[in-house]
Amino acid sequence: MKVELLEMTANPEEIIYSAARQCYSEKDAYEIFIEAKKIKKDKIKKFINEIVSSGHESVLEHVKFTFAISGVSRALTHQLIRHRIASYSQQSQRYVNMENFNYIIPPSIKNDKNLLEIYQNILNEIKEAYEKIEENDIEYFKISSDYGIGIYELLNTEIEGCFLKGQISGPITFLSIVKDTEGRSLIFNEIVEDIFVKVLGMKGLWLAKKIEEKEKIPIIFYDEPVMSSFGSAFFPVDKNRNKYL
Fold first, then answer.
1. Is residue 76 in a domain?
2. Is pTM, for the whole model, over 0.70?
3. Looking at 74-83, 106-115, 147-156, which range is the least confident one?
4. CA angle 174, 176, 179 (to 5 degrees)
5. Cα–Cα distance measured from residue 237 to residue 187, given in angstroms and rounded to the nearest whole number
């Protein structure tokens, strides 16, 4: 992990002192700030400690420190930005080409040879899928006959009319059904959801392409049966998140 201080508020202790004193003084904050420059640092620090200890923490918000942090995992940053203790600007994996695909290996996995091999294989598969999406390689995302027998039977059947409907599990249903190692639905895992949404989108494009090869106009449905539980205690995912997925 690499942490660098880019910029900070000048005279932060005097700023906090002035903000706190303003709450209890008839003087304005500027006067207090000028006076603070003449007060010994130890006295200001003692006053700030007393104010913060009393629970008056909002005065700390008048100063800021901007850090550049790198070499950490998305798992860490996704937990960090859940709590608005600061403002965040994070590199977007949607707009930045992640060709180098650097990732963090947790110590508990690095120290276990078998886990490390599994971990690296999975990440290599994700990297390959990412590259294929970037290349728009639709064939890479073809639906296997092992999992889509009905699709291949449909594609091998002569059907009248100009339209042909295909159907794929939607991202909300898919992410709700598939569980992680702790038995938690992937729909609550923001780290992996984006790749699954994109993969399902590419599978839909592959199916549309195969239908077009039959000289039919494709209509692709993303089936979302789990949405029948939307709004209930069995499906605690908010409206904005559903709309995004």
1. no
2. no
3. 74-83
4. 95
5. 8
Q: How buried is residue 12: exposed, middle or buried, by Cβ count under 10 Å (0-12/13-18/19+)?
A: middle
For residue 58, the enclosing domain spans 2-70
What does the block give as tokens for 188? 């609550």
Q: Contact 221/167 with Cβ under 8 angstroms?
A: yes
Single out the residue in 70, 94, 124 at which a domain terminates. 70
Nearest CA-CA partner of 179 in 189, 171, 170: 189
For helices 29-36 and 12-22, give the axis angle rounded to 10 degrees: 140
Helix (H, G, I), strand (E, B) or coil at 120: helix
Q: Exposed, middle or buried: residue 146 (CB in 10 Å: 0-12, 13-18, 19+)?
A: exposed
* Helix orientation angle between 113-134 and 190-213, rounded to the nearest 10 degrees: 50
Burial (CB count <10 Å: 0-12, 13-18, 19+), residue 207: buried
Could you count the other beta carbons within 10 Å of the beta carbon of residue 150?
A: 9
Predicted confidence (pLDDT) per residue in 222-238, tens digit? 888 887 777 666 666 76
- The CA-based diameter of the chain, rounded to the nearest angstrom, is 90
pLDDT of residue 128: 86
| pLDDT number for residue 195 | 77
Of the three residues 37, 52, 70, the one that is the final residue of a domain is: 70
Judgement on whether residues 147 and 64 belong to the same structural domain of the protein: no
